[in-house]
């Protein structure tokens, strides 16, 4: 799979996870939603930098 397609799929997966977690668990909790979203983005970023980044 080419690099741009992989990046797009990775970002789509990130967005899907954020939306599902928001709608499932944090519908009425703004502060907790923000913290959870930041945590999800941090995990996705760490995974990208550790396993998917190509030099």
Largest sheet: none
Radius of gyration over alpha carbons?
13 Å
Kindly give the count of domains. Answer: 1
Number of strands: 0
Category by helix and strand content: mainly alpha
Any key phrases for this structure?
55 residues, mainly alpha, 2 helices
What does this structure look like?
This protein is an all-alpha fold and about 55 residues long. It has one domain (about 5-50). About 85% of the residues lie in helices and about 0% in strands. Helix 1 (about 5-25) packs antiparallel against helix 2. The longest helix has 23 residues, at about 5-25. The radius of gyration is 13 Å and the shape is elongated.
How would the blueprint of this fold be written?
Elements: H1 3-25, H2 30-52
Helix pairs in contact: 1-2
Task: Summarize the model shown.
This protein is mostly helical and about 55 residues long. About 85% of the residues lie in helices and about 0% in strands. The chain has helices at about 5-25, 30-50.
């Amino acid at each position: 799979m080419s690099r741009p397609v992989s990046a797009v799929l990775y970002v789509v997966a990130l967005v899907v996870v954020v939306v599902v977690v928001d709608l499932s668990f944090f519908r009425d909790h703004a502060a907790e939603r923000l913290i959870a979203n930041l945590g999800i983005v941090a995990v996705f970023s760490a995974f990208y930098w550790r396993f998917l980044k190509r030099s």
